Amino acid sequence: MQSLMLGxxxxxxxxxxxxxxxxxxxxxDAAALYLIVLIVGAILLLPLALLxxxxxxxxxxxxxxxxxxGVSAAGAGYGLYRAxxxxxxRLVAPICGxxxxxxxxxxxxxxxxxxxxxxxxxxxxxxxxAVVARGENDVGAGDARAAVAWAALACVSFAVTFGLLQWAxxxxxxxxxxxVSRVTACFALLLWVRLQRIDLKPALRILPTLGLMGFLxxxxxxxxxxxxxxxxxEFAAVAASIFGMITILxxxxxxxxxxxxVQWAGAVVVFSGIAVLGLV
Length: 280
Hints:
The chain is mostly helical and about 280 residues long.
């Protein structure tokens, strides 16, 4: 029960984070926004990581995996922020949230067998996304394609990021790995900002909001990590995976983004499939 509750709380926090991304995504460049969110998250995570007695476990192998996950995380967040800036949430959220489907695929590539539930969950995700994407959207065809492309980049990058982080965490300390990965993502985005000469001033004007987003993101991640100390920690990951549905509900209620009954059904199917994959 504790793991389930921690996962549900993490889903709420991530859902609020993504909803806020949708609200402020057009205020500044996505890289500038996400860079500040990452920096705030790293500052908040630093005390927890320093208190953890596991830095000696950061062997060269673990460090390589962690650095790679940080680069991938930078791409994942950038894709997510670009996708939500275009919207609508009902189109973007199911695609971004479908990364467990790819995570299962990576696990199969490493030798894990796929049972009937895996294929059922995968089919539900694919069919549900197709239903949502084919419904009526209030953006142009070109914008919809761009939103889908950025969301797909986020989906693939999140799957790679979490796969590498889990691999590294099997060998090293959780918080230390998370901090190094986040700091690496900060440097990767900072390099991109410098190369593209992106102005940070528009993002700094909404610093309190970005600070809140950083808090929401790192708190959700910490809750799922803490769940590892309770019985059935996989329930936390499953519950947290419904964060996209919370974002859709918030956008429907507060941003007045319309949803047809068919799109509601498609979204429910997607996140039901994700939940099934999480239980495998």
